[in-house]
């Protein structure tokens, strides 16, 4: 079990919760959240996310991460204009915030 802030993921069962509410993520959404949470507090580059989540070294679409991130933020209740969980670091990547 991995817990950051009030978000928990269980990689063994591929289940996730925000507080007491279970969140139904798709396979890629779960992989994206897990990749970010496992490196919480650190910036994870888009290239690394494409490699670890999408298992590719080339960009199938420059919007792939953004689209999935939008769905993840919505499901987590994280406002993209004032994010508290996942922050976009322009030109560098994404960071799952520890506080």
Question: What would a concise description of this structure say?
Answer:
This protein has 99 residues and is α+β, with helices and mostly antiparallel strands. The chain has 3 helices and 7 strands; from the N terminus they run ββββαβααββ.
Structure description:
It is a single chain. The relative contact order is 0.20. The protein contains 3 helices and 7 strands, in the order E-E-E-E-H-E-H-H-E-E. It has helices at residues 27-37, 46-53, 64-76; strands spanning 2-4, 7-10, 15-18, 21-23, 43-44, 86-89, 93-96. The protein is of the alpha+beta class and 99 residues long. The chain has a 4-stranded antiparallel β-sheet with strand order 1-2-3-4, covered by helices on one side. It has a single domain, classed as Arc Repressor Mutant, subunit A (Orthogonal Bundle), CATH 1.10.10.
Summarize model confidence as the mean pLDDT: 94
Number of helix segments?
A: 3
**N-to-C span:** 18 Å
Q: Beta-strand level of the residues, as a percent range? A: 15-25%
Described by its quaternary structure, the protein is single chain
Features:
single chain; 99 residues; three-stranded antiparallel β-sheet; 3 helices; 7 strands; globular; phosphorelay response regulator activity; OmpR/PhoB-type_DNA-bd; transcription cis-regulatory region binding
Note the topology.
Elements (H helix, E strand, L loop, with lengths): L1 E3 L2 E4 L4 E4 L2 E3 L3 H11 L5 E2 L1 H8 L10 H13 L9 E4 L3 E4 L3
Antiparallel strand pairs: 1-2, 2-3, 3-4, 5-7, 6-7
Helix pairs in contact: 1-3
